[in-house]
Specification:
Blueprint (H helix, E strand, L loop, with lengths): L22 E4 L5 E4 L22 E3 L15 E3 L5 E2 L18 H22 L5 H23 L10 H24 L2 H8 L2 H12 L6 H18 L2 H4 L10 H28 L5 H23 L8 H27 L2 H7 L2 H13 L6 H33 L1
Antiparallel strand pairs: 1-2, 3-4, 4-5
Length: about 400
Amino acid sequence: MRTKPGACRLARSRRHRTEPGSLMVLSQAGEAAAVPAGTDKELEAPPGLEDDAGTGQPCLHPAAPGMEAVGAEECRVCGCCSGSPWPRCCGAPGTKKKAACPGLGLFYTLLSAFLFSVASLFLKKIEDVHSVEVSAFRCIFQMAFVLPGLIYYKTGFLGPKGKRIFLFFRGLLGSSAMILLYYAFQVMPLADATVITFSSPVFTSLLAWIFLKEKYSIWDLLFTLFTITGVVLIARPPFLFGSNVTGIEGSYADHLKGTIAAIASTVSSASTFVILRKVGKSVHYFLSIWYYAVIGLIGCVIALFVMNEWRLPYCGKDRVFLILIGLLGLGGQIFLTKALQIEKAGPVAIMKTMDVVFAFILQILFLNHLPTWWTVGGALCVVASSSGTAIRKWRQSSKKAKQNEI
């Protein structure tokens, strides 16, 4: 058979998946977005098109076996712009490469942090709805978003046989982190719960050292001690601060329960990051979220029936809040993913600390609750340790990338 003049088949590039050693950026509710460590380029040329990438010259795309090219024009593909047909590519004469908007990735991160914080505020505003039921609605939104992606990419619903046990625990721990975090938001101040969740990168380094044998330096130990100090300042246990603890919501028993739930949520989130590193790029990102949503929904339904807490909200305002929590959480995850596609993970992780700032602002403006100086001090300790961990990982990955180029 003959090819038509000028015909050309372009291979689609595959979506990159999480690799061991990648930098994790925390999202609320036990979710994580990941990019490979040392990613300094915005885009990578797809497999098979890398030979002449960046030279400004088109690379020739060979005809398929058994196909004659008699009478056909030369089929040329540009490798420097991910397979765009010549001459509509960045290396063609007279064409200009589209410049990326500077700071767009950080803006997406800022928008993601704002959406997550507003979703947390709506959670505080909901009345007579248990945190487990709110988590169930969140899982339903996640499933509705992920299902079309699974069908489009043809990943299946179970994943590779050797990875299913890791996917199961990723879903179990991730959904547990979400439920515990939502409970913490309901029983303790918004800013306190948000600050504690930001200790997750520190716990991730510790668990990666234990289970993945990754390096754990003196700096990691220092950041861990800073994080523990910050959590103690927020929890303010009676044996250190006395029995008269001020600046909390409700009783101290509820505050202590919320603190324990937030810490457990943080450890569960860190565990999911370690599992994602262990699984690597063999499992599609959509499949990981699918397990998270399905197992979370099943667990929430079972827990609601056992506790006899399943009921639709009586107030129409609460129903609107439930829908908005699902939409805002989904929007925050989308913008965080887009940020990681065009920006390095280090700056994104640092910008994510705006979650804490938004939590303080929203708590003061809409909940009429002024944070204490103990909370502010604890927030500074946790944010400093989390930012230090992110900066250190970012510098290590950048240095490793430069060594690989040499």
